[in-house]
Each structure stands twice: as C-alpha cells, then as structure tokens.
Amino acid sequence: MMLKAIGLCVQLNHQSLQCPVSIPCHVKLQILHMTGIHDIAVDYCGCNQQAVKTCATFRLLEMFHLLSLVSKTSTYDFYHTLERMSDNTGLNTPPSCRAALMHMLIQWGEWAHDVTGPEGTKPGELAVLCPSCPWPGINLPSDWDQDKSRFLYLLLICIDVNFHLKNQIMLLYSRDPGLSIGWSYFTAHEPYEDYVQRSLLLTLQQISTCVEFSTMAKSNTKFSKGLRYTGVVAISCGRSEIVLLTCVRNMDKGERFNKYANIAPLAAAAIHQFSDLLWVVISYDITCQWIKTIFTQMTLHWPSKLQFNPDIRITPLVPKFHKPGHKAEEHEQFSFNLTEGVGLSDGECPKRIWAGHNALGNSTKTVGPGTQQDLIDNHLGFWNWVKYCYMGEPSLKLAWIHIHRD
Known about the structure:
By secondary structure, the protein is of the alpha/beta class. It folds into 2 domains: 3-108, no CATH class; 118-396, no CATH class. It is 30% helix and 15% strand.
C-alpha cells in the first residue's frame, strides 16, 4: 500500500511546517528512497511556482554515492534495484525516473562552501595529496638536500595504463565537457590536446626494440575501433599508492610513442609538482624505450609549460613483475634490485590501484567524455581518501609492538 493511500501528506520547502499559501499537488509525485519508489501526496510551497514531479531523499543520494564508490555499481543498476524493491513482479513498475536521478546526483554533489566559487578553483585543488611524497617545506627536514640523506627523499612515481577503462565515441566535448576536469586528478583537456593531436602513431616495429608488451601491441589494433579512448593512464606514488593530482589522462590510441604524446604531459606534471627535488625515480613497464629520447623530445617538441629542470636526476626502472619479460643484456640499470635508495619497492603499485577500478569500465564505456572523466575522478578521490585514512595504521601497530617489546 502506498503512503498516499493511508493519508500521508508532506509539505515542501518549509521544514515540515505548514505553508500559509500551500498548493496541493494534483499530479503523481514519485519519491526515490532506499526502500523503493513511492507515490506520496505533497503540498507545494505557494511562495513560488516551481512544480516538482520527482525528488530523492538525501539519505538515498548519500547511500548511492558510497555504494558506487565501494562496489562500482552503475546508476542504471541502482535505479533498477529501486524498481524491483517497489514491485518485484514487474506488473506495476513506476514510470522511469532514472534521468531525473542522474541530474539530482550531479546537483547534490556540487562544489560549495567556497567564496570564490567554481571559477576560483585551481588545478588539482580538489585532490587528496599524498603525505608520503617529499614536499620541501612541509614534511622534509632542513638538511634534506644533503648527499648523505638524499636517497631518503627521492620521489618514486609509477606510470601505468588501464585498458579496461575504455570510452566509446558517444557525445562530443561540446555536449559533455565535464564539470571538474583539471581540478583533481584528470589533467585539463585543452592545454595539451593540440600537442597530442600533432603526434603521429608509430608502428610496432618502430616502437619496440626490446619486447612486444601488450601495452605496445594494443596501440595499433582493431580493439580501438569505435572507441574515443582505449584506456586511462595515471601516475601514482610508489610508496603509498596514492594517485597524484592532475596526473591522469585518457589514451587516444594505445600509447602514442611518437613524441610520447600521452605520457609526456603527465610525467612533466608530476615532476613539476616537486620541482625543488633533486632525484626522481620513474617506474614504467616499458621505461627502457620511453626514457631513451625523453630529454631530446622535451627540448625539440614539448611545449614550454611541460619542460622541467634537466639537472634533476632521473632514474628509470622497470617494475619487478615486468622485468623478466625484457631482454637480459644491458638491462641491469633498470632493475629495482640493483638500484640504490629504492629499498624493497617493486614499482607495481599501479596494478594494485587499477585492480580495484577495472569494474568501473562498465560505467565509463558508454557515457560522454566529460561524464567519464568526472566519474573516474570521483573514484580515484575515494581511493586516495581510503589510503590516506589507513596510512597511519601500520605505523601505529609497529610502535605498539616496540613499546611492548621494550
């Protein structure tokens, strides 16, 4: 039995108080809640003339927000779950409110409580920063740049691509530009697009002189037919597995190695964030190819905004799991096991990050380009937040062990 049938009437816009000029709702108003889709009688506020046909409770929006972040469920599946909770026979299914629910989710998650508004938001301002990375003036001692302790404060970044997060050619950017691209993890679309589009694809024979990894093989194959993007590349901290701000972008056609167009903006953005550092270790499964001409390409082809200090010590390494797939000769310099300062790091943290986001591909494949990037930004932000919250737990346990041991 519907709540309307037993006499429930809700007054809108007056915090449960009666509006002195209330207007009875004479249409069928549907309320989306965690218990299903309900038909409820309401009185509109007579102070304005806005007619509402569909609404949702904040509790429902909060639940779906967390449910989607944890389980990677889509709005489509969640809404049809509500339909089944309302009528599992399918005989009295309410009219679809899924489009309205999607609009409400966007409006509910707006950027607020900032006097500058969205226009004053800076690149990467909404991202969760990595507390494990070396930030001069924040978490480093005054003598961090001395030779004896330099290895303690090197920057370890890892690059990898997820080919599960594809995106079909649906809407254009003009129809779906996104709401917050460039404010957290995805890099802004416009600044580097001309640079990327000028780059031409190399054939596999031109790409590889070492080993034919799937990351290279997928760049010129039939798997990219009908797709706007074949995957997503991200740069993360090799210590904490936190994704770095403005260091995520889509891959247009596999990994464009001519001028390294897709990787270059991200690597430069990551290094620019730590421009005062002296030593950067870069882990990438095909770094033996990527690193060969990076400084030459930077000088000849990169836009000036991408170029970084060439005096920074760059140490390229191959992740431990991928190392056996490379040629043995002349590859010792790419080994984690033979490199000073990296400890027991394996360089495989992107694989662990992407493993938790592969299921998101079902939601990102058929949406517009802006929605896809906003969605991935949201999930990467949740990943970083969870990592941040639990980061102190191992140290606390270790300290507890030492206290009781003493």
